[in-house]
Amino acid sequence: MIATSFDLLILLxxxxxxxxxxxPWWWPHSGTFETLxxxxxxxxxxxxxxxxxxxxxxxxxxxxPEAFVRTPVEVLEPxxxxxxxxxxxxxxxxxxSRALLDDFGDFxxxxxxxxxxxxxxxxxxxxxxxxxxxxxACYRETMVVDSYTARLLEALGHPQPDYFHVQGWMLEGLRxxxxxxxxxxPLAQCYAQYHxxxxxxxxxxxxGKRVDVEPLKQEG
Length: 220
Known about the structure:
Blueprint: H1 5-14, H2 33-41, H3 47-59, H4 65-70, H5 73-80, H6 86-104, H7 107-113, H8 116-120, H9 127-137, H10 147-155, H11 163-172, H12 177-181, H13 187-205, E1 206-207, E2 210-211, H14 214-219
Antiparallel strand pairs: 1-2
């Protein structure tokens, strides 16, 4: 029986969903401005589409806040287009980059000093995006949850009404659980790996909008 998030963590780890070969923090190029850009671009689209946009931006040498600020939005839009909503995303990323430089001076200072409230005040950033930036780009002790997490919990018989209840359920069962599974990792990285395992499992076992939990029940 999967009664807590620690039970779920143990099963996902046992089944080998801690895909650490992708990146030590699961999100590609974690700890960089590129991660922040990816967190915005991945809204309402697939990661495969985001990778196309990121590669186009990389080839154009635009993956820095300074480059986003000085580049006309008309140049950014076709590069970001594969990720969808490219007009809004281009403008939101340019505005975010400008605010980052105005308030922090550079990405490195931003990563150390930025608060969740500051991120939530930016256009185009909601709860999931803010937490993804804090955890994967800034290496903060923040548990990211998403629609995959919510669907997985519902399939396990633990439906939650909103983002913060999903996040709370995931955190409540852990206590020192992350460190028991990943004893050599900082807590922020444990959270990152855990969210990554949830996503990897859900992608493999989704059936429409449902997540099949039989592999977990069989293992448990």
